Model the fold of this input.
Amino acid sequence: GQNIDQPTEMTATEGAIVQINCTYQTSGFNGLFWYQQHAGEAPTFLSYNVLDGLEEKGRFSSFLSRSKGYSYLLLKELQMKDSASYLCAVTGDSNYQLIWGAGTKLIIKP
Amino acid sequence: ETGVTQTPRHLVMGMTNKKSLKCEQHLGHNAMYWYKQSAKKPLELMFVYSLEERVENNSVPSRFSPECPNSSHLFLHLHTLQPEDSALYLCASSPRTAVNTEAFFGQGTRLTVV
Done:
């Protein structure tokens, strides 16, 4: 089958670093997305990884290992506004449909 | 402002009502999508439209009926819904339907069926 696993909820402290993991099993793979969704708001695009390795974009970085079916989103210098859900999604063997994780709710404490 | 606008933001309807959700995108995209988001569950793709033509229908019950009159507008007509249909309904658009394309989401309609 095809599925994605990510932790349901994580808590971190303002100013710290947090790593949100995502593991996947799919038939066919082209890339992996990370989206951020604040409560009651639209999901917004963070990153798209196709090749193995780390891609850095400001305070956020995303890592992919295709051989291990594993990705993580790394958030540095956490701010209160980073409190949100982080959605992992993978391209499978469909032309139109991504395979989505249930999201990780990140809670930032002062 | 995400470029994708959904109305209404909140909707409460009875099981015998008929209502419609509206989505409009101002990004010049060719593809539009309806998703269902239930608490603690993955996003469920319901419908995909490419240039006003439906290209994907994921076995969605017929009580959900999509309409795409042009590439900027998408509707979801609701009829005889069940309480388990209560969820956040998200509209999204992308430049094309290729699965490796970034999607731009609206803020969603929070639907409650009573």
About this structure: Chain B touches chain A through 24 residues (CB under 8 Å). Chain B is about 0% helix and 55% strand. The mean pLDDT of chain B is 93.
